[in-house]
Design a protein that fits this description.
single chain; about 280 residues; alpha+beta; 12 helices; 4 strands; binds flavin mononucleotide
């Protein structure tokens, strides 16, 4: 498709029929971003040589709070270790299929070691604020890596279930105190036999607030999105459950967190102060 038509098609895929984006602001980066989809089926084709340092350079190019760089990534290619992490993270089969598993860490241990080496007390590291700094740093870095790998034609999917057993994951990866694996990212070549689609998102009227917050857009926007996503789910064999019902089950009862409602306790056991 000519780029303008392709961009219009991407906007429709992201928001459903009838949605247009302003013409004229198209380029390959926007095309790539709007084309994102999580990949959960991988071929056994090996990764191009140099994939890991390239992705890490992209990740390290992300902004980082005060240039503190409070994140780390652990790469796992060993099949036996991937199997053990798969068992700890909801047994999602793409963890076994994808040749590379990247684990993204909030890492305050480097600054802790720096303080110890220089004989400096570091009480600030024991705050929720510093945990948030580290978690944000890790997320921005990982997302840069995801965009980079998608630009190479590779595919990936994040793995939040890596927080299911944080202490066992920490043990498997030999993490020191003050480091936690926030999420995984499976990376590989998309299986060419599995069709994937751009998943629609909430209308902009729901997430975009101009000057001041207003929930008004939700009244029309959410029922409209429920319909869009219900059609999408049905078309892709995921049943006809709409977004609202899914969200209520996932984010309502504590059981929707499958044990992760104990996160504060998990993080404290890993050495974070969270004051
Ligand atoms: C932090 C995070 C954790 C996620 N964890 C999982 C996961 O454990 N398993 C999975 O299949 N998808 C996981 N996903 C992918 C989301 O389900 C996916 O991004 C969302 O459904 C939107 O689909 P899309 O990425 O194809 O646009 C995760 C995404 C994020 C951002």
């Amino acid at each position: 498709l000519p780029s303008q038509d392709r961009f219009a098609a991407l906007a429709r895929a992201r928001y459903g029929e009838g949605t247009e984006l302003p013409p004229g602001l198209t380029n390959p980066v926007l095309d790539l971003l709007l084309s994102h989809r999580s990949i959960r089926a991988f071929s056994d084709r090996p990764l191009p040589e140099g994939t890991i340092p390239t992705l890490v350079a992209a990740a390290q190019s992300a902004p980082t709070s005060s240039n503190l760089q409070t994140w780390s990534v652990v790469t796992v290619q060993d099949a036996a270790r991937r199997q053990r992490l798969h068992d700890l993270a909801g047994r999602q089969k793409f963890i076994l299929q994808a040749p590379l598993l990247m684990l993204w860490m909030a890492d305050l241990s480097r600054l802790d070691r720096l303080g110890a080496a220089r004989g400096t007390d570091m009480p600030a590291l024991e705050t929720i604020e510093m945990f948030m700094v580290a978690a944000l740093d890790a997320a921005f870095a990982a997302q840069n890596a995801l965009v980079a790998l998608e630009s190479l034609g590779l595919g990936g999917v994040y793995i939040g279930q890596m927080r299911q057993n944080p202490e066992a994951v920490a043990k498997e990866l030999n993490l020191p105190p003050n480091v936690v694996a926030l999420f995984g990212l499976s990376v590989g070549w998309p299986d060419p036999n599995v069709v994937t689609e751009v998943k629609p998102r909430l209308p902009q009227s729901v997430v975009l607030h101009t000057e001041q917050y207003s929930a008004e857009g939700e009244q029309e926007g959410i029922p409209q999105y429920d319909e869009t996503l219900q059609e999408f789910s049905q078309a892709h064999g995921m049943g006809a459950v709409d977004w609202s019902r899914r969200a209520l089950t996932r984010a309502g009862p504590l059981s929707g967190l499958s044990g992760r409602d104990r996160m504060q306790e998990f993080l404290k056991a890993l050495g974070f102060g969270l004051r």
